[in-house]
């Protein structure tokens, strides 16, 4: 055995924590009821690579495993066994190859081959479609429109952990080694999505009736293919809120006692959920809202990661006026009266598409019913906020927004966390807050009748704006060149939209401007100038400490005029609503006070 072979074998022994079993003797008769199936699969395994003797050994090992564990052979076992069998060429004893195979199966696919109905595999498919919708909604919609479900192309991916998609066994070792190091039961899901992304042009350029075949024919032929797919899979996982990843890991797809309940739950889910705790951590970054030591709390450690998240408060205006989470964007109240306004909500955030993770906030826990959205709305749901959240979610997905989730527990749970840690809830009025006074003044009836009058038309409108079958395919957006004034920024949740107001003409600008409050800086730029690769063209950058005052009129508080030190020119803007204007001024005031207490409190992160 040469040094390279010995190193490879020792690496896999260490990775799998396999110990020798001197009592193990692998000898068995080839007499299982489905022995012909085993033999047939063995003949098709690694054609042109395995020798005749290796095929005989493979059949013996598979038969021995099925007898030892009293389980029926299933396709896929052969593809998992073959790479470990091939280590015998490097001097690994047959018994050790068998022990590695068994440890690998029991660790990473523990009940995949035990259940006759392949229910763990079904759970993988359901999680896969949710994660695909989150990261690639256009591709998800494209596959759905063409009737292509994961069952049609991803079965072999998950039951062989991609071994059947790679001809070079050394590349299988590489992929499996990364999979083991990730120690994440759903890393195969991220790899699957990365494969679709890697081969998207090949898939999208195929004829409509050949799409499924095109996906089934993709293979990882080169080391570059494997490295790029693994890198993309790691990026996909990294670019997810921590609470979403944590929730996914709690789905025990290999627990046969709870699998049926899990399948029922997953079949109803239409999106992924971000936890209320993570939202509050983002909304109050300077506060400690954890009873555990930050060094031992993963949530607290994760808050240092700057995944840009925006809370879109989808509650009614009356509910919002009784209290809002800091730095959240407020739904246009006309959305509850006009379905066209509702469906145009995502347009206000086009400049943020592909950058921000949009977290939709309802009043309470969102009650999912189906992955597929109902286009008819024949059964009116009395919970108008629940209806609104679902419709806004669908509107964002139709317009190709990735990273859209719903906040688990809604405002009710966020409110509980905020009060538990004595945090400030902006504009909070306990008398009108439905969480504080559920039996207090009834505000919901003010909008129920108006909302019900148009909720039945939502499906038709969404359908009319959705891409027709086969007419639209997801487009990979190209990276744009940065201009001279482009600044690499680190986005936060403090985001506002307004129009420029020219006092001399009394006219508003056609363009909308975004406001970003970050550390000691106020950024102002034209909406639509944001590059989807995290770069923004900034029109103005002001130091918050240079703001002399911000003025507005009592009758029209949404009109704001900025006065800066050293500038004779005044800058006037019109916020979308009075409440939005108040929120913005409060945010600037809080940041000014924080900065004024000491320049070292805020770490400057502006990069030019």
Summarize the main sheet.
Answer: 7 strands, antiparallel
CATH homology superfamily name of the largest domain: Rhodanese-like domain
From the N-terminal CA to the C-terminal CA, the straight-line distance is 56 Å
Tally of separate domains: 4
Q: For the residues shown, what is the average pLDDT?
A: 83
Strand content: 5-15%
CATH domain topology of the largest domain: Oxidized Rhodanese, domain 1
Q: How helical, in percent, are the residues?
A: 40-55%
Q: What class, by secondary structure content?
A: alpha/beta
Q: Outline the low-pLDDT stretches.
A: 375-380, 442-457, 467-473, 475-493, 529-536, 597-608
Lateral arrangement of strands in the main beta sheet? 11-9-8-7-14-13-12
Multimeric state:
single chain
Explained architecture:
The chain is an alpha/beta fold and about 600 residues long. It folds into four domains: about 110 residues, Helicase, Ruva Protein, domain 3, CATH 1.10.8.1310; about 130 residues, Ypt/Rab-GAP domain of gyp1p, domain 3 (Cyclin A, domain 1); about 190 residues, Rhodanese-like domain (Oxidized Rhodanese, domain 1, 3-Layer(aba) Sandwich), CATH 3.40.250; about 110 residues, PH-domain like (Roll). About 40% of the residues lie in helices and about 10% in strands. The protein has 24 helices and 14 strands. The strands form three sheets. Strands 11-9-8-7-14-13-12 form a seven-stranded antiparallel sheet. Strands 1-5-4-2-3 form a five-stranded parallel sheet. It has a two-stranded antiparallel sheet with strand order 6-10. Helix 6 crosses helix 7 and helix 6 packs parallel to helix 15. The two termini are about 55 Å apart. It holds the Pfam family RabGAP-TBC. It comes from Blepharisma stoltei. This is Rab-GAP TBC domain-containing protein.
